[in-house]
Every structure is written in C-alpha cells, then in structure tokens.
Amino acid sequence: MNKEGLTKIVGVLLGAVVLGSAAGIAWQSKVKALDQPAAVTETAGSTAGEEPGVESDAYTLAKGDYSNLTYDNISLDKPVYDRYTLKQRQEKGLPTMLPALPRYTAEKVAYLTFDDGPDAKNTPAILDVLKAYGIHGTFYVLGSMAEENPDVLKRIFAEGHAIGNHSYDHDYRRLYANKENFIAEMEQTDDVIMNILGVRPFIIRAPGGTVGMFSGDYYDALNLLGYVEHDWNVLTEDATPKHPNAAQQIGYVDRRTQGHLKDNMALVLMHCNGGKEETVRALPGIIENLKAKGYRFGVVTPITPQPW
Questions:
Q1: What pLDDT is attached to residue 50?
Q2: Mind spelling out the 3-state secondary structure of 114-128?
Q3: Helices and strands (DSSP H and E) totals, the chain
Q4: Are 299 and 262 in contact (CB under 8 A)?
Q5: Structure pTM?
Q6: Angstrom distance (rounded) from CA 60 to CA 45
Q7: Domain of life here (predicted)?
Q8: DSSP label at 100?
Q9: Active site residue 271
C-alpha cells in the first residue's frame, strides 16, 4: 500500500473515533439529564416582596406590617385574619402587637357567637339556620375539634363567618396554671387553623371567660402578641346545669337585651358542640327577637367593643 492510501485509512479511522466519542458524550449527557430532577419553576405569589395568603372580598387579610388594619378598612360583618403565624412574625421581625384601633359603637349590633365546635352535627345545623337568615356568626373553635372536623371548619370559613381561637381542648387546669400555658395553647390552635385554612385568627375567647381566670399579666401578654379576647354580655345558659330548652333560651336572650346595653352591643354566648340540639332549635327565635329590637348582626373583629 502506498503512502497516500495509508493516510486515507488513518483519516477514516480517526474520524470514526471522533464521531463515536461525540455520540458517547451526547448519550451520557442525555442520560445524566434524565436522572436530574426537573427545575422548579417560580409559582404565583412567590415574587420577591409579595406576601403570602389569598386575598378575598369575604374577609380582611392583615398585611405583614398591619398597615391595612385601620378602622375604616375593617367591616362590621367581615372577619379579620392574619397571613402569618406568631412564630413566622417573630422570625421575620414583623410586629405582633396590633395597632390601636377605636371600637365600633355607632349602632345596635348583635354578635352571635358559638363556642366549643366544630362538631359534625350541631355546627352544620347552626350554619344552616344562619344561612337561611343571611347572617354571619362567630365561631370560637377548639383545636382538637377542628382536627376532628376540618370540613366543617372549612364550611364556616367558606360561608363568611368569623373564626376565633378557644384553646386546644378546654382544659382549665392546664390553661390557667400560668399565662405561658395559656399562650402555648393559643399558638397550638392557631397552627391547627392555619394548617386547615391558611389563615390565623386574631380573636380569642378564654374558656369559661376571663372573670376569675385572668390576672393583669395575662392581658398584657396577649396584647403584646396581638390577641384580642372577648367574653360576652348575653348568654343562653346552654352550657349550664340548667339545660334550658329552646323557649327558655329565647327568654334569657330577650330579658338580657331589654333596655340599653354597653356600647349598643349584644355579644351573645351560645355553643355548637354535641348535646346542644336545643340551641339549634332556639336560634331562629333568638334571631327574630333581636331583629325586632332593632339589632343588626356582625362578626367579632379587633374593633368589636368589650362587653363589660
């Protein structure tokens, strides 16, 4: 074989090696790419500086700096929630204490409040009554009950009612041993509500009420953390040993709302847990009685007056 022929053969062989190497590299790259997880794309709401939470006309969602929590921005019948847990606020260096807000006293308002739910029977029945009347109520829920009945909690939220924190499981001995225990239970229940709904309530109600339970340091600690506690000034006594029937409950509300109440407000305590069938039966009569006295209906918010 002459020199020219040998050169051609060597060239062909070298070309094959180069092509083979290139193909091998390309294949290895393809396999490696298939082994890698897909790139995570930015989702809506993740833009830098944009705050979490779903805005809605059905409720007021507080901004991180609380700048939208003003008297004029808070509606009488629209709940107010936070987009952050207390821990998230503290980690981000955001304020926890709410701004000073005047209380709403311009007209006669009845706040229908229901404690100790949500349960699977009486809470939905109460929601049906409120829906029939086109009225929003306030439900102070237990964390343990919310975990048992998340779909009922979602219905309360979806239908525009206010949700408040009523501790995790109503254990007086643990709750009132000290303010640290009380606050820990509030935060525990906040987390339950946040995990189900994606929002956190500001409003709370102390089990059994604050009278005889709270000392000044409880109020101070709650105020610093942005919790707003409300007791009541009208009750149906549906959680007392009297076990009043529907007619008696209507009578209690009627007598306690005669004449002038502080700040033109009737903050009515009822319950929506098991065994409160008479409360369900009484509710239409209670609503009719309050309407006849000129009350309109609202939900508890940070601008709701204190009942005492």
A1: 83
A2: EEEECCCCHHHHHHH
A3: 10, 11
A4: no
A5: 0.84
A6: 18
A7: Bacteria
A8: P
A9: yes
Residue 110, SS3 per DSSP? strand
**Residue with the two structure tokens 């304020």:** 95
Residue of 136, 166, 170, 271 with catalytic role: 271
SS3 209: coil
Distance (Å, whole) CA 16 – CA 124: 77
Domain boundaries, the chain: 1-41, 60-298
- Contacts (Cβ under 8 Å, ≥6 apart) of 24: none
DSSP letter for each residue of 16-67: HHHHHHHHHHHHHHHHHHHHSPPPPPPPTT-STTPPPS---TTSEEE-TT-T
- The rounded Cα 151 to chain-centroid distance in angstroms is 14
pLDDT at 49: 66
Distance of CA 278 to the CA centre of its chain: 27
Pick out the chain residues at pLDDT < 50: 1-48
For residues 200 and 59, what is the distance between their CA atoms, to the nearest angstrom? 12
* Exposure string for 101-120, b = 16+ CB within 10 A, e = fewer: eeebeeebbbbbbbbbbbbe
Catalytic member of 82, 115, 116, 263 = 115
Cis previous bond, 244, omega within 30? no
Q: Can you say whether the dihedral through the CA atoms of 296, 308, 123, 301 is positive or negative?
A: positive
DSSP H or E run through 162: strand 162-165
Q: Report residue 146 as tokens.
A: 């919310």
Multiple choice CATH, 60-298, 3.40.50.2000, 3.20.20.370, 3.90.920.20, 3.40.190.10: 3.20.20.370
